């Protein structure tokens, strides 16, 4: 590989003992700073003082509570959406599955649009917090409507389901994209960002556990023998909780990092900047592949326990043990990132996921205890994935500002969410195609070939996806030293604007 030719600009500034050299490639090659400035001795000024202050425990808890609230919808739909639309609402299974798939893809395309809108919002509450609270009440109402069963024929119900489900997902994105972006502007400190996202996903895992455990009990309690009566009541309760939680988030968090004041407003420029940002492109591919890994295992688990192991009663405990392990892994993330760079840690963990997932291919169906042990270990390894990834998205947003002089935090997160939804849709398609290839028959005895493909979807397929994610991570170059230099340069620019 040839040595790039650089045109160099020397910018000297005092932070007691420090001089920073910033360079721009004549060939516009990706430039990763390697300086490690003495940030402890630097004296931040103005807004930068607020941006580099460590976040309080109260603010971290408030932010983490937000993902607990969002999981009243995300987990409800992921865990119970299909069975509600087929067994309660009364849709044909193929029609219901097709609706969920098409809606997920359409919703994925709405995310970058919301990111562009949020990045251009200006209010006394900041760019992102108004959207979080403003969408909470409509989301609560649409949640009730989506899980209400109208007295229509099949075609009428299908139209109703498409309408209410897509509206719910759009409003969900209106709140969730700004919420995700909020962590990127609450602090400029890399360790704080990792810790903040650990709080977020612990809240998310807690919300998911509450939903998977409580929802069937509440539906039965309010609906009795008629679950169609119980579902809207349950969603109304969840909606009230979500409105209260989003108010908690908005009132107890602050946006400290703003885009450069001279930044032009152009969504197309935001998109062009993202595609010129190599670290973001790597993260886009990484999010897609990791979501394929996760969705393959999650969606196949019920089939695996029911038809391969022959213990349908263990589906709940199997998934619950995984959820608890995810939360534990997320809690351990800040401790691990003190010793290992985020990309290197992610690489190690995904390599472990590949090995552990592949082991399911050789575990005998009667070794239930061993299956649970491996499932918990996979959860521990995947738990840090979300805090690490979202902290890396914040780094990518900083790098965009560093390289192009423009900041598009919400667009960065929205595009990442876009890739995750595409990854989930791709995994769902792979599962459906695999089962169709071996003539899977629901609720009946399965052939050896069917059990074999279910085992592959539970083991070798996610293992292969996890290995691909490791290969993708080899292309990611924003390590801790590089981000220290990026943060110092951005601090210098912001301080200069205030002089």
From TrEMBL:
Q: Does Transferase count among this protein's keywords?
A: no
The transmembrane residues are: 61-85, 91-110, 131-152, 158-179, 199-219, 231-251, 280-299, 314-333, 345-363, 369-393, 413-432, 452-476
Q: Which GO terms describe its molecular function?
A: symporter activity
A GO cellular component annotated for this chain's UniProt record is: plasma membrane
Q: Where is this region: Disordered?
A: 30-49
Sorted UniProt keywords: Membrane, Transmembrane, Transmembrane helix
Q: Which GO terms describe its biological process?
A: carbohydrate transport; sodium ion transport
What the entry lists under Gene3D superfamilies is as follows:
MFS general substrate transporter like domains
* Biased amino acid composition, Basic and acidic residues: 30-41
Query: Pfam families, alphabetically?
Result: MFS_2
Q: Which family does it belong to?
A: Belongs to the sodium:galactoside symporter (TC 2.A.2) family.
Q: Which NCBIfam families match?
A: gph
* This protein's name: Sugar (Glycoside-Pentoside-Hexuronide) transporter
Q: Which organism is it from?
A: Asticcacaulis excentricus (strain ATCC 15261 / DSM 4724 / KCTC 12464 / NCIMB 9791 / VKM B-1370 / CB 48)
Phylogenetic lineage: Bacteria, Pseudomonadati, Pseudomonadota, Alphaproteobacteria, Caulobacterales
